[in-house]
Amino acid sequence: MWVNPGNECTIAQLACRMADMYKKISGKNVGDKIEIVDVLSGQFYGKGYDDSDRRVPDISKAKKLLGWSPSIGLDEALTRTIRAYITEYKDAFGKKDAH
Fold first, then answer.
1. Which terminal Cβ of the chain has fewer Cβ within 10 Å, N or C?
2. Three-state secondary structure along 25-92?
């Protein structure tokens, strides 16, 4: 099994990471506009939902069938995604220059 190393984090950690990156890229602090709360899967999805404690994807099939393996880390992927989002939706935010 070949997993994507170094990218394991909780959804809450991912949300905090994204908010911090957005602030660094855009200069805007969204921390006061969002609230990240821990919610058990049963509370969110309802009784009987079976959740996994960890999500560590096995990417060996992608490597074998497609010859693909990750070339950038999670932080770089998030940075690129957030920059693209800001650029794509800058007019929706009423800004001429989102960077």
1. N
2. HHCCCCCCCCCCCCCCHHHHHCCCCCCCCCCCCECHHHHHHHCCCCCCCHHHHHHHHHHHHHHHCCCC
- Residue boundaries of the structural domains of the chain: 11-48+55-88
Say how far apart CA 61 and CA 82 lie, in whole Å: 28
pTM: 0.69
Average pLDDT over residues 78-94: 87
Distance CA 45, CA 67 (A): 36
Buried b (16+ CB within 10 A) or exposed e, 23-61: eebbeeeeeeeeeeeeeeeeeeeeeeeeeeeeeeeebee
